[in-house]
Design brief:
Length: 356
């Protein structure tokens, strides 16, 4: 049997990843049309897409780049609130809901990318625990800034204040959009499952093309041996910053999609626990394994809802499932037993090799 070339194998793996996402979308649409999905599960479809995108984005930093970031919920919140402010401010100017959603996601992605550059330039010179601590601090700083920020809109444009809503000085007919610790309470819901599906496909395309490009190979070379990579002229800060900002942009778009699914959103929803949840998706799905991140994020996010009938034991069952997944992905005996299954699902190595 002829052995597959690396490029051919990569093409097959990428096709499986795309096929898996498209098949899931088609199946869910059929189930929705047939009334086989409960209203609670239907309400989780957009958040699942947002968190799948977040897992893909964070895997680019943690798995592909090899840097531990604990502040990605901060980029998500930047995208969420900038997207919501744009949505409400431009409601009369852009009456088309799909177009306004697209513009809001682009605005969220741009602002998150700017935040990624501001944070990444000084922070990516650090390594290991120091980088994790600084990114954690960034996430908390963003949350605290949003908690004291008031934004309103009237015929004269946007107004900003860090004092209170009255200090905005809005003209008659103006309205406050962001109300400090209350967040946004008058958001117009625009997100759809189709938009989330498209965002997931975009995230997969961006990350896989980046990983398989010259830049991606440079990033992985720095991850595997920084000294050797720098000795042949690969700039560590430059290439790691590209991966970090790309991840932040995807996180911002995911945050805007997530926020557009609710009428009210507060900064406390994007705290340290949200960053850890996304990191759990990445680790359990496999470092450097894009397909595994997608599966882990989708299954683990919806699992508590599926266990709602077992309310008293829900978190116990959830913890047991997490332990079993960790055993299955790290224990040699479990690897051998589940080898065929995990080969199909695209199990990633702990070393973080980008297989898809």
């Amino acid at each position: 049997m002829k052995k597959l070339t690396p490029s051919r194998k990569r093409l097959i793996n990428n096709s499986i990843t795309y096929g898996m996402v498209i098949a899931a979308f088609v199946i869910i649409q059929i189930m929705k049309a047939g009334g086989m999905l409960s209203s609670s599960l239907q309400g989780l479809l957009v958040p699942i897409c947002a968190y799948v995108t977040m897992a893909i984005a964070l895997n680019l930093v943690v798995g592909i780049s090899g840097e531990l970031s604990l502040g990605h919920a901060g980029f998500m919140s930047v995208g969420a609130f900038s997207g919501m402010v744009f949505n409400i401010a431009m409601q009369s100017t852009i009456p088309s809901a799909p177009l306004r959603l697209l513009c809001a996601m682009l605005v969220g992605a741009v602002f998150a990318g700017i935040a990624g550059v501001i944070v990444g330039v000084p922070v990516l010179r650090l390594r290991g625990d120091y980088l994790a601590i600084v990114t954690l601090a960034f996430g908390e700083i963003i949350k605290n800034i949003i908690n004291i920020l008031y934004i309103g809109v009237d015929e004269n444009g946007l107004h900003f204040s860090t004092q209170n809503e009255a200090a905005l000085g809005l003209a008659e007919g103006g309205k406050a959009i962001l109300k400090g610790p209350l967040g946004v309470t008058t958001n117009v819901k625009l997100s759809t499952f189709t938009a989330g599906f498209i965002l997931v496909l975009v995230a997969i395309t961006v990350v896989l093309n980046l990983v398989n490009s010259r830049t991606g190979r440079a990033v992985m070379a720095l991850r595997d041996n920084r000294i050797a990579a720098e000795s042949v002229g690969i700039g560590a800060t430059k290439y790691k910053l590209i991966a970090f900002v790309t991840s932040a942009v995807l996180a911002g778009a995911a945050g805007a999609l997530y926020a557009m699914n609710y009428s009210s959103v507060a900064a406390k929803q994007f705290d340290f626990n949200a960053s850890i949840l996304i990191l759990v998706f990445v680790v359990l799905g496999g470092l450097g394994n894009i397909r595994g991140s997608i599966i882990a994020a989708a299954l683990l996010y919806v699992l508590p809802e599926l266990l709602r009938d077992f309310y008293d034991f829900r978190m116990l069952i959830y913890a047991i499932v997490l332990i079993l997944v960790m055993l299955a992905t790290n224990n040699p005996t479990f690897k051998q037993f589940f080898g065929g299954l995990f080969a199909r699902l695209g199990r990633g190595s702990r070393k973080g090799g980008a297989q898809e």
